[in-house]
Amino acid sequence: MNNFKFQNPTKIIFGKGQIASLKDELPQDANILLLYGGGSIKRNGIYDQVISALGDRRVEEFGGIPANPEYAKLMEALAVIKARDITYILAVGGGSVIDGAKFLSAAALYEGDEPWDILTNNISTTKGMPFATVLTLPATGSEMNSGSVITRAETKEKLVMGGPGLFPAFSILDPEVIHSIPQRQLANGITDAFTHVLEQYMTYPMGAYLQDRLSESILQTLIEVAPKVMEDPTDYTAASNFMWSCTMALNGLISKGVPTDWAVHMMGHELTALYGIDHARTLAVIAPSHYTYNFEAKKEKLAQYGERVWNITEGSTEEKARAAIQRTEQFFHELGIDTKLSQYTDDYEGTAEEVAKRFTERGWKGLGEHQSLNPEDARKIVEMAY
Fold first, then answer.
1. What sections of the sequence does the record tag as coiled-coil (predicted)?
2. Which CATH code fits 183-384?
3. pTM over 0.90
């Protein structure tokens, strides 16, 4: 196991009725920006719970954050922060709204001329404006980590940012919020969390026994609860295990002491930027091709995954590893997730070359756990995913 440091300062408040905890957790004198998405929180009762808990605090609302948080829209929110002397951000939504809050947290205190430079120059934020979250869509784990992904429509870019100053002060996780989530978004959430674990697990053996078992337990839990959540989102036991698995999948714990990959995400981000495909679905498109292309480097871990997670016990290491890739793709299909780019767009020719070009222009010469995948490798992987 590699040396590591681990610190996660986010306070988690989990369970039924916990949105009411906002009244005790937020500073009474805070000038709050209430950030949310398309307005579903006003239809499902979450907005009313939040407003009730905020009491007589000063609140400015800013809605309309899209599924891929868009830079231009966030700049509008930043103008409100500066004009209205906002001191605290409350993100009520899924990963996109929370990612938007992280960008605003960093941008509010950024001293440069162009906040987009935080992303293009990979600036680590050590101190941001304080913010908290009320999670409404389990998926990304953004409620308990310091990472964020922001899209810029005018340039068709989707870039990552983060830093130790971008952990939420606290996050409220009430599993009952999933009652009103559409089936498509539930499937996306399961797929997103599942792939987050794979990115931190599907590398090579490191002798990190506990980390492997933690990752495998999250995968097994997601597999177990997926059909229950899809069939009946009001099943509280399934909903609570689903929500907590999504958070645990990307709160930093399972990545400590082990190599991580993240090449699937980097390629997937480009597909979203180019075509607007749901983030989780781009991961399902890229992952099978990525594991097949890098089979020799990953086969030992793939076989372990096949044995422990999918109970694939027959055959050689290679046979179990290939069966594990097939079973993973089947799992995505069972959720209603297509796994080929051509199933999302007819305009896929040339995509692989465009992704490779973008990686080259950004100087991304090494992706994956060995930092050995170059833009040409990315081209081949994306082409395999057509």
1. none
2. 1.20.1090.10
3. yes
